[in-house]
């Protein structure tokens, strides 16, 4: 029945929430879902690593957060579960959020390699207690893990029952057909548009060069990162790099809803060993997973824009400004996204504020928000202006510590003559009438009377005014 | 024992239902298609036809159509916000704006988190805003002052000044939510729809004139509470019908309720509450029984997906103009696949509205799609059966995956049409009751009223 493909697709859509993936034990990726680009490479890497080293029985759960084993940030925990004897479910849950300025991944927090959590229905208490005892482990981690395990087991059982209830079986043939159709659909989407080749360079503020040669030909995309420099302060894992590449391309062509082994096959990557896109332990990956991802997305969007001149788009400000306020018992990360680049037919979308309560922020921290709004842009001008970034102005009422991070403020990549650059991220502090710019990343204490102005970047403009 | 009659009136986006019950058993029921019939007239007629059974009380669940939550149709309201935060709601909002940009004003005032008034209200500035509003012929304003829950001094002053100028003010309810974005969004939407809601409410109250005194008419809110007719509800009534359904059909059975109405397929939890509605305007503080709109919906369009197979478009087309079988719609919808199903054609409110031309046009459109599909199978009988099977299996699977209770009750006028989807699920019962929304409104309303007395 041809509709069994649609039934499988809707089952995957209904079951997979947040950052999650479903794979077969023999390595076929049935679906990946998520909003974070790295998800599209790291979840499958996590499943592969976990199943390679640990024999999973039905119902068993493995956890990890190690980026070199398929994790992302250490504050996010990945769960790999054997849903049945041939299905693996991978899901990622946020545990804590904070900006990490560190030289090695070990300094970012507790690093968990693939570790059996639930075996034969029993929680591995010894291992969990050992983790909880780690100085970097967040409080109530054990309780949180227990809750996650219970929820995962419940959902997994529901999936199996739902499949039985529907009366249709996920056969190997159905999977093969689905993946083939996905591959063909992705191929068609790419083939419908221009072919070509281009090279793009993006330089991060810390000096790392990202060089990508993109070749689109006969429905396939080849990305060669030869010429990309080694790690200085930014490192991204191989699986994260793959994920970002796939996500950016799939979104551009419109096949992100069929992210599976079939559609993955249209992409081929070449990376020199030692480059920052294939970082190695113990390099710190926090900056890579945030700023590095933004740089990679920027480079790919530029390349796509150059090849598909009809769909040319000015540069978006993809590197958010992350500002982490530290209280005595809690912290709060404010992520200010940037504006989008304009296209040949419309202005760029302005940045949206992160969802939080100003009242709660002022209750939890000694700050007073003076203003939060779209920033006035001097850059990004054009017939179609770039999307405006955000401005957050806060008065510090009492001593408070903060750390922050952003990137892509110093080096402007070469862009087409139709486009203009948007504003870069801007941070400043005003005290006693004196204003001083803050660096792109840092950590310091702020005192009462300090006024912080945080501005995210704005998108580039398009066309002559 | 004296027979007690109660009347349930449920007004949705495109349909209204009336159920006259005696000792919980239906005496008379009616469904009205609001695109073609008048609410007040049909209610008057219903009451006249059943005048021998005058209800003791009437309970109403009134939902403002989503399109009227849009300020473009209902009228824009001014927003006066603490200086520096005048765009806070639109920065956090959804895809739709709450009001016109020209009606966003900032005012110098500031209360700190601890309740201290750091800056008193700028009365001169507010006078100037009031003058502008009157010039713009805008007589309604929302007041969004930070920390006004902790200290409402500035807020009260602002209200007094604006009232004196003849401007109606709307302030967020303190109990609504600790998050000001949710409280302010709710306040803004309430302000937008207040006139529309009152017009609708008055239509209903006018229909009861001479039959039932106003003090015997109650409106349900999304939390399941009953309110006298004179009390202002507006957005609070948005999910009243769903809450009533969840309570009546779900709570006693300790099961979730899958409500298959003509307007939407919704899975309602009977015990779990949500304090927030994630609307198209942003997050809104609105407590209601937690519910989930299924991925399959009655007026979803049918198209060819990325694989060239028949599938459903994610957005609903609604009932204006509605499915093609009504004769006016231009796009195939899910319900069109059941246009020749006798259970659907006999449905109250829809029977006698099926247009042969519309059904034929739908078949022609389906044939065009079939010719362009991957399989190029132009056997329309087979295509229709496949789409029906997909629908039934998706309903079964999604409802199972998302329900929180082990058991499930299926209600709504379309329950009998889609009953086959659940025949394999031993923990699911299908109710044949056609008018479950208005029945639940009446039954839950009576129970809630007894609880308050």
Structure description:
- The complex is a heterodimer of chains A (465) and B (453).
- In chain A, strands 2-1-5-4-3-6-7 form a 7-stranded antiparallel beta sheet, with helices on both faces.
- Chain A is built from 9 helices and 22 strands.
- Chain A is 28% helix and 26% strand.
- The longest helix of chain A is centred in the first third of the chain and has 26 residues, at 141-166.
- The relative contact order of chain A is 0.11.
- In chain A, helix 6 runs parallel beside helix 8 (286-307).
- Chain A has 465 residues and is α+β, with helices and mostly antiparallel strands.
- In chain A, a hairpin with a 2-residue loop joins strand 18 (426-431) and strand 19.
- With 453 residues, chain B is an alpha/beta fold.
- In chain B, 32% of the residues lie in helices and 25% in strands.
- Chain B has helices at 39-49, 71-74, 88-92, 123-135, 153-164, 180-208, 240-251, 342-345, 356-372, 380-402, 436-452, and strands at residues 5-11, 15-22, 25-33, 57-62, 78-82, 104-107, 110-111, 117-119, 140-144, 168-170, 217-220, 226-228, 255-260, 265-279, 282-293, 300-304, 310-316, 407-411, 428-430.
- In chain B, strand 9 (140-144), helix 5 and strand 10 form a beta-alpha-beta unit.
- Chain B starts with a strand and ends with a helix.
- The chains are: A alpha+beta (465), B alpha/beta (453).
- Chain A binds chain B through residues 1-3, 5-7, 10-11, 13-15, 158-159, 161-163, 165-168, 181-182, 185, 189, 255, 257-258, 352-353, 355, 357-360, 362-363, 368-374, 390, 393, and chain B through 84-88, 91-93, 110, 112-113, 118, 146-147, 149, 178-181, 283, 295, 305-307, 309-311, 374-375, 386-387, 389-390, 393-394, 396-398, 400-402, 424-425.
